[in-house]
């Protein structure tokens, strides 16, 4: 791989990792704009984003019960711990 493709791949990895935060509304306005711009320029990341949107929509349709807040908090803590280890 060339340096430019390494940079591009690294950039895409960073943006793909933001998909979940973006869809959860957990990113700053500045990051939203950066993320949207990247999606407009990168078909691979757009496909990943669209796939995640479809998965979330399918889950919403098939799951009628809301998770208790305590469970949501535990999941978010676990996600944060995993991110901090990476």
Condensed summary:
The protein has one domain (3-85). The chain is 83% helix and 0% strand.
The biggest beta sheet is recorded as: none
By DSSP, the count of extended strands is 0
Poorly predicted parts: none
Helix amount, in percent?
A: over 70%
Report strand %.
Answer: under 5%
> How many angstroms does the end-to-end distance come to?
24 Å
Cα-atom radius of gyration: 15 Å
Structural domains: how many: 1
Helix/strand-derived category reads mainly alpha
Order of helices and strands: HHHH
What's the mean pLDDT score?
84
**Structure annotation, total helices:** 4
Protein name: Mycothiol system anti-sigma-R factor
Pfam family, one: zf-HC2
Keywords: Transcription, Transcription regulation
Notable traits:
86 residues, mainly alpha, 4 helices, globular, 83% helix
Description of the molecule:
Helix 1 packs parallel to helix 3 (43-62). The longest helix has 21 residues, at 3-23. The protein starts with a helix and ends with a helix. The chain has helices spanning 3-23, 29-41, 43-62, 69-85. The chain is built from four helices and no strands. It is 83% helix and 0% strand. It has one domain. It comes from Rothia terrae. Residues 12-45 form the Putative zinc-finger domain. Keywords: Transcription, Transcription regulation.
Task: Summarize the SSE layout with pairings.
Layout: H1 3-23, H2 29-41, H3 43-62, H4 69-85
């Amino acid at each position: 791989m060339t340096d430019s493709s390494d940079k591009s791949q690294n950039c895409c990895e960073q943006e793909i990792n933001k998909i979940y935060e973006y869809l959860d509304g957990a990113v700053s306005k500045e990051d939203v704009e950066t993320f949207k711009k990247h999606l407009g320029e990168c078909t691979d990341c757009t496909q990943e984003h669209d796939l995640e949107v479809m998965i979330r929509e399918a889950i919403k349709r098939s799951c009628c019960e809301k998770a208790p807040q305590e469970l949501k908090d535990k999941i978010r803590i676990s996600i944060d711990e995993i991110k901090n280890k990476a």
